[in-house]
């Protein structure tokens, strides 16, 4: 393995070492929070401490940052790896400046989303954060780049795509962060139920991320193997 191959492992390594443990803790606190609320309504008192709700919110915010961060890392590696390979910084400087600004704007929008106090500003910064992730992910379409995009999306098999799972779960995490205050202010619990349903779906996507990410690590060759592997006949599963 050379430096390029090690760089490719940063995204999955951070996901395994940091993101998935946080997911487990968030799910645990979410379950306890739900059980405490149901017990308080039914029995009037619960043995589960009230701090679980605060811990769930705090770790949920950490999870959003971790998911968005690891998503941007996953998008940044192929973007800049292929840019260097194709000398895009000298041949297409405008395109590269645009992409760098999009990464910076997405991160800045997420930071402002954490600080936003009103519903309007939370909606604006949640939209801008989500838009940044989408623009970077679909950069070849946005920039009308000819040929294959630098980011492999597995469009022909989107229902099993690590990219599409990751983008969807990232948008769900941004949405969850944006509606935290609405959940506590809404007495009808509509925002709470929406939060529960969407994050149950997100949990399934996280499981799918683990499976599709493992598959992709098996499929992606080391840098010195690429020229040999791409000569293979993938339909007949034969190589010269």
3D structure, described in words:
This protein is an all-alpha fold. 75% of the residues lie in helices and 0% in strands. The chain has 11 helices and no strands. Helix 2 packs antiparallel against helix 3 (51-85) and helix 8 runs antiparallel to helix 10 (190-219). It starts with a helix and ends in an 11-residue tail after the last helix. The relative contact order is 0.09. The model has no long low-confidence stretch (mean pLDDT 92).
Which H/E pattern describes the elements? HHHHHHHHHHH
- What is the arithmetic mean of pLDDT? 92
Task: Please estimate the helix content.
Answer: over 70%
Cα-to-Cα separation, first versus last residue: 23 Å
Biggest β-sheet strands, sense, barrel: none
Number of continuous helical runs? 11
Strand content: under 5%
Structural class given helices, strands, pairing?
mainly alpha
Question: Which descriptor suits the 3D outline?
Answer: globular
**Care to count the β-strands?**
0
Summarize the structure.
This protein is mainly α. It has helices at 3-8, 10-42, 51-85, 88-91, 93-115, 119-137, 139-142, 162-178, 180-185, 190-219, 226-229.
């Amino acid at each position: 393995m050379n430096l390029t191959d090690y760089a490719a492992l940063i995204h999955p390594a951070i996901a395994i070492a940091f993101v998935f443990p946080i997911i487990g803790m968030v799910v645990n606190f979410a379950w306890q929070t739900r059980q405490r609320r149901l017990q308080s309504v039914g029995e009037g008192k619960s043995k589960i401490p009230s701090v679980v709700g605060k811990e769930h919110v705090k770790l949920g915010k950490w999870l959003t940052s971790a998911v968005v961060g690891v998503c941007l890392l996953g998008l940044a590696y192929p973007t800049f790896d292929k840019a260097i390979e194709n000398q895009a910084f000298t041949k297409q400087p405008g395109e590269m400046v645009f992409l760098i600004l999009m990464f910076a704007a997405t991160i800045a929008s997420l930071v402002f989303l954490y600080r936003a106090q009103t519903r309007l500003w939370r909606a604006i910064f949640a939209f801008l954060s989500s838009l940044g992730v989408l623009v970077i992910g679909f950069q070849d379409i946005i920039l009308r780049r000819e040929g294959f995009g630098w980011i492999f999306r597995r469009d022909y098999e989107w229902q099993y795509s690590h990219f599409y799972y990751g983008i969807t779960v990232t948008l769900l995490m941004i949405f969850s962060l944006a509606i935290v205050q609405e959940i506590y202010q809404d007495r009808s619990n509509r925002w709470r139920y929406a939060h529960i349903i969407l994050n149950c779906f997100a949990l399934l996507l996280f499981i799918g991320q683990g499976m599709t990410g493992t598959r992709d690590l098996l499929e992606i060759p080391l840098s010195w193997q690429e020229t040999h592997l791409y000569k293979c006949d993938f339909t007949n599963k034969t190589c010269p």
